[in-house]
Design brief:
Number of strands: 4
Order of helices and strands: HHHHHEEHEHE
Shape: globular
Distance between the termini: 32 Å
Low-confidence stretches: none
Largest sheet: 4 strands, parallel
Strand content: 5-15%
Structural class: alpha/beta
Helix content: 40-55%
């Protein structure tokens, strides 16, 4: 419920805690970056690492902010470029929407407010923690037009629900 400038100030504070105070997985991240970018200098690797932790802090704050998301408020932080053109091209069709693991992919299902005649199907990996599974389930169920489907049930869900009068927008993040 806070204004976005304050939320990003909170993410800056969270970055300090995650990176500098707790050092969350610092050695693992550094090792992975060195393996992924052998051509980068140590200063280049450290710059990427700081960017990663900064993005992680922002994603945490953005994800928590979804507790209070509304159709009206989404326009404060999402700009859907060419949405009219996409709606026109995809009218009457099922389609796949792809996102990357960068930024807050939890915003992705808000497309349902652009296309109220479709179901947005959020494909996800079930979590091991019941607490977080419940938390994310609540976050992702903000509209009757959003369906949350475990990755292993995606094809079955699609085959069962295609041709029911509502188009399906299958939301996939890059590792799916």
């Amino acid at each position: 419920l806070l204004p976005y400038p304050i939320m990003y100030l909170i993410s800056d504070v969270l970055y300090v805690f995650i990176f500098h105070i707790f050092g969350y997985r610092k050695k693992v991240v550094l090792k992975n970056l060195r393996n992924s970018f052998p051509e980068k200098s140590e200063s280049g690797i450290r710059k990427i690492r700081c960017g990663y932790y900064n993005t992680l802090a922002e994603v945490i704050v953005d994800t928590i902010s979804l507790v209070s998301v509304t159709e009206k408020r989404q326009s404060d932080f999402i700009v859907w470029e060419n949405s009219d053109e996409i709606l026109q091209k995809m009218k009457g069709k099922d389609w796949i929407a792809m996102a990357a693991h960068y930024g807050c992919w939890e915003y992705f299902p808000m497309w349902c407010w652009q296309d109220k005649n479709s179901y947005f199907v959020s494909v996800y990996h079930p979590l091991h923690s019941e607490v977080f599974e419940c938390f994310y389930g609540r976050l992702r169920s903000f509209s009757e037009n959003v369906r949350q489907i475990p990755m292993g049930e995606t094809v079955r869900f699609y085959l069962k629900n295609r041709g029911t009068g509502r188009n399906i927008v299958l939301g996939l993040v890059s590792d799916q």
